[in-house]
């Protein structure tokens, strides 16, 4: 079965192409066989998403129809909506983690590893008057008396593997990411 994602990917590639794109090139770019690509192109034309024009005996030109552009725009809109929903989810979850750490008396917040969400972590630390630092390997201090005395809380980034044993002064964005991706796959997208 041909996935709608592959169909839309082909439409996007054709619409972004500055020059005439060949079927063979589409097949290579998308990672499908030439026969499967041909089948998808015919199906897209049948659905009215693509126009096929024979230039000469050897060359065919593909043009995305207005209906095809609507399909691409719809996909982009759904992706944008899903991204915004994820950002809101992560923002709220990070705010909760930081608030709970502050409520337990932690005053220093260490983000361990690099994160695409570091600006959100830093923002909430600033908002709650917590000292914020980022450390590539600050997790070595976790569970030590020095960390406890300094009131440190460790947040492991989504790119960093947290220690096997979680403590009261640590949390993990990776676990947050995994739980959100499982939640998103169980929800139906309209």
Question: Can you offer a commentary on this structure?
Answer:
- The structure is a single chain.
- This protein folds into two domains: about 5-65, Winged helix-like DNA-binding domain superfamily/Winged helix DNA-binding domain (Arc Repressor Mutant, subunit A, Orthogonal Bundle); about 80-185, Rossmann fold (3-Layer(aba) Sandwich).
- Helices cover about 55% and strands about 15% of the residues.
- It has helices spanning about 5-15, 25-30, 35-45, 65-105, 120-125, 145-150, 175-185, and strands spanning about 50-55, 60-65, 110, 130-135, 150-155, 170.
- Strands 4-3-5-6 form a four-stranded parallel beta sheet.
- Strand 3 (about 110), helix 5 (about 120-125) and strand 4 (about 130-135) form a beta-alpha-beta unit.
- It is elongated, with a radius of gyration of 24 Å.
- The model is unreliable at about 185-190 (pLDDT under 50).
Helix content: 40-55%
How many structural domains?
2
Low-confidence stretches: 183-190
Please state the second-level CATH architecture of the largest domain.
3-Layer(aba) Sandwich
| Whole-number mean pLDDT | 84
Q: Treating each run of at least 4 consecutive H or I residues as one helix, how many helices? A: 7
Structural class: alpha/beta
Which short descriptors sum up this protein?
2 domains, 6 strands, Arc Repressor Mutant, subunit A, four-stranded parallel sheet, 15% strand, elongated, single chain, Rossmann fold, 190 residues, alpha/beta, two-stranded antiparallel ribbon
Topology:
Blueprint (H helix, E strand, L loop, with lengths): L3 H13 L6 H8 L3 H14 L2 E5 L5 E5 L1 H38 L4 E5 L5 H10 L3 E5 L9 H5 L2 E5 L13 E3 H14 L4
Parallel strand pairs: 3-4, 3-5, 5-6
Antiparallel strand pairs: 1-2
Helix pairs in contact: 1-4, 2-3, 4-5, 4-7
């Amino acid at each position: 079965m041909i996935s709608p994602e592959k169909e839309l990917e082909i439409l996007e590639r054709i619409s972004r192409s500055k020059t005439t794109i060949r079927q063979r090139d589409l097949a290579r770019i998308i990672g499908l066989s030439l026969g499967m690509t041909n089948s998808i192109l015919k199906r897209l034309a049948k659905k009215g998403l693509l126009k096929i024009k024979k230039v000469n005996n050897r060359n065919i030109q593909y043009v995305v129809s207005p209906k095809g552009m609507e399909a691409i725009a719809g996909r982009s809109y759904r992706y944008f909506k899903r991204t915004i929903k994820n950002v809101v989810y992560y923002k709220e979850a990070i705010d909760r983690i930081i608030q709970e750490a502050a409520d337990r008396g932690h005053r220093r917040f260490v983000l361990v590893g690099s994160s695409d969400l570091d600006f959100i972590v830093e923002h909430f630390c600033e908002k709650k008057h917590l000292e914020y630092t980022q450390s590539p390997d600050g997790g070595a201090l976790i569970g030590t008396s020095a960390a406890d005395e300094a009131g440190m809380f460790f947040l492991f980034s989504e790119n960093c593997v947290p220690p096997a044993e979680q403590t009261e002064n640590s949390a993990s964005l990776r676990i947050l990411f995994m739980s959100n991706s499982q939640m998103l796959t169980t929800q139906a997208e309209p």
